[in-house]
Amino acid sequence: MNLPPKVTDRAFSRLAEIGAAEQDRALRVAVEGGGCSGFQYDIRLDDPAEGDLVLEGQGQKVVVDSVSLPFLAGATIDFSDELIGARFVIDNPNATSSCGCGTSFSI
Questions:
Q1: Looking at the 3D structure of the chain, how many domains does it have?
Q2: For residue 18, is it within any domain?
Q3: Which tens digits make up the pLDDT trace of 35-83?
Q4: Contact 13/20 with Cβ under 8 angstroms?
Q5: If we measure between CA atoms, which residue out of 44, 40, 56 comes closest to residue 5?
């Protein structure tokens, strides 16, 4: 069985800062076809749905749908706050290449 993705404390802390749980929202991390490398991440606040994998920490939730889950096996969902901007980032061991924008990858 593939390892589920991990969520860092920094990512959960950021969700707490923006009050996701108070709005009954979770951070949805999905993988879609498209982007400059074949696949792209879709990361947004969303309502948890039936069949989602729910990762919980600090009272916050990150959800991954069953179709995206195999693409995110063993990945780490983190929050990066750098000069180029603050954003949720995915460190994905399944991606063989990615593009400069960091939201697109190939397997």
A1: 1
A2: yes
A3: 677 888 999 999 999 999 999 999 999 999 999 999 999 999 999 998 8
A4: no
A5: 56
Is 105 part of any domain?
no
The residue segments making up the domain with residue 15 are 6-97
8-state DSSP, 21: G
Nearest to 38 by CA among 102, 103, 104, 99: 104
Residue scoring higher pLDDT (99 or 64): 64
Whether the per-residue pLDDT at 105 is higher than 90: the answer is no
Nearest to 57 by CA among 22, 15, 5, 2: 15
Unique residue bearing structure tokens 């989602």:
52
pLDDT score of 23: 92
Give the number of other Cβ atoms within 10 Å of residue 74's Cβ: 13
Q: What is the dihedral of CA 48, 5, 94, 10, to 10 degrees?
A: 100
Q: Residue 61 belongs to what H/E stretch?
A: strand 60-64
